[in-house]
Amino acid sequence: MSGGDKKWSEEDLHAYIDGQMHRDRRREYEQYLATRPDLLRRIHSYQLQIGEMFRAFGSAKDWRS
Fold first, then answer.
1. N or C: which end of the chain has fewer CB within 10 A?
2. What is the pLDDT of residue 1?
3. Total-model pTM
4. Which helix (H) or strand (E) holds 59?
């Protein structure tokens, strides 16, 4: 793992995907992602899965109790 990789965690990846990352940190993370096509493919895959779940089950507000 290179030095740049150690700064970012799996939690950061999911915060990015979920739109829960602070604007400034998001900008920094996107610069990092520009060097990581493997993570961009992974993010795209997660986004497709999320879209499929929403199409199948409705939005999160539809199934929250």
1. C
2. 44
3. 0.74
4. none
Q: Do 6 and 15 touch, CB atoms closer than 8 A?
A: no
φ/ψ of 47, rounded to 5, equals -65, -40
Dihedral sign (CA 25, 26, 27, 32): positive
Q: In one letter, which amino acid is 51?
A: G
Can you state the angle between helices 37-57 and 23-33, rounded to 10 degrees? 120
Nearest partner of 32 among 59, 61, 60, 2, judged by Cα? 2
- What is the C-alpha separation between 38 and 24, in angstroms, rounded? 23
